[in-house]
Amino acid sequence: YRRRWLTTDPEGFAAINRLLPDIDLSADYRNIRCPALLIGCSDDPLRPPADVEAIARQIPGARYVEVPSGHFMPQQTPAVFLDTVLPFLRGAAP
Question: What percentage of residues in the chain have a pLDDT greater than 90?
Fold first, then answer.
């Protein structure tokens, strides 16, 4: 994980981060028809849970959960990640 970030091309990383603030996909949320799990992480300053929950409300049938984790949930809290995602992938009811 550390090596991945240390070897990321700095110019490409900067370009992506300049583009992100201008991307607005909100008009497309209502067109999502597959099962969707949106996870808000309580310690995520980049994507606060309230923002994720607002997106979930715009996706028909989306499931929203909030968990105690940070922005890089699979690396920071892998057990929480697996406990949250695997039941959804297996089709477990909320």
Answer: 73
The rounded distance, in Å, linking the Cα atoms of 90 and 61 is 17
Residue 67: how many CB atoms within 10 A of its CB? 17
Is the pTM higher than 0.70? The answer reads yes
Element (H, E) at 43: none
Q: Is the dihedral of CA 14, 78, 68, 27 positive or negative?
A: positive
Strands (E), 14-92: 37-41, 63-67
CA distance linking residue 58 with residue 49, whole number of Å: 15
Phi, psi of 67 (to 5 degrees): -130, 160
Taking a C-beta distance cutoff of 8 angstroms, is the pair 69, 77 a contact?
yes
How distant, in Å, are the alpha carbons of 5, 38, 46 from that of 61? 35, 11, 25
CA distance 3 to 24: 31
- What local confidence, expressed as pLDDT, does residue 92 receive? 64
